[in-house]
Amino acid sequence: MNSDNDLQIAGDILEVPHLLQPPREHPATVAEFVGLARAIAADRAQWAHLVRYDAATRWYHRLRTGPGYEVWLLSWVPGQGSGPHDHGRSSGVLTVLEGTLTERTGRGTRALTAGAMGVPPLERSREWGRVFAPGYVHEVVNDALEPAVSLHVYYPGLTEMPMHDSPHCEARTGPRPVTA
After folding, report:
1. What is the rounded distance in angstroms from the CA atom of residue 133 to the CA atom of residue 72?
2. H helices of 87-142, where?
3. Rounded distance between C-alpha atoms, residue 167 and residue 116, angstroms
4. pLDDT one-digit tens code per residue, 93-127
5. Alpha helix (H) ranges present in the chain?
6. Do the Cβ atoms of 60 and 73 come closer than 8 Å?
7. Long-range pairs for 126-130 at CB < 8 Å and ≥24 separation?
8. 50 vs 45: CA distance, rounded Å
9. pTM for the model
């Protein structure tokens, strides 16, 4: 009869170091990019002193780069938004560090809030952020009365951000031309 109590592992894997994979210096999987975002979010000393607020335009700062990826810090005063856009060929992780942001997509509207990243999904009242693939169209806006700060990880690094007429489509069908 097999049960959890009957299951035993022969030996200690830590005593066979040749079986362990060496830790990576830089993330290479979606889970590792999410882990990077979580680690930065948890370490306010890395980012809090850099944050600036600008009433005229969204403020942003490239926090870190690595082989093929970039990490950006953005601030949002009430009423500021990104406009409907995608991230070209980049995948990404978006998480809120302070405040609350609203994300609008073709599937609906979601509140993304700070502090929910470490809370188990079934216990969250709001979402911590978003993982997205190339072509994901969304709009992010600060609908709250307080400023917000967000962290964005892009792989590969962000080279374009095509604007769209509406976030109400799931895949990129073509960027909206930018006119002056």
Report:
1. 17
2. none
3. 24
4. 999 999 999 999 999 999 999 875 544 444 444 56
5. 30-42
6. yes
7. 126/100, 128/95, 128/96, 129/37, 129/93, 129/94, 129/95, 129/96, 130/92, 130/93, 130/94, 130/103
8. 9
9. 0.77
DSSP letter, residue 58: -
> SS in 3 state form for 3-18?
CHHHCCCCCCHHHCHH
Residue type, 64: R
CA 10, distance to chain mean position in Å, is 40
Of 71-75, 82-86, 118-122, 141-145, which gets the smallest average pLDDT?
A: 118-122
Look-up of token digits 């979580």: 38
**How many helices, marked H, and strands, marked E, lie in the chain?**
1, 8
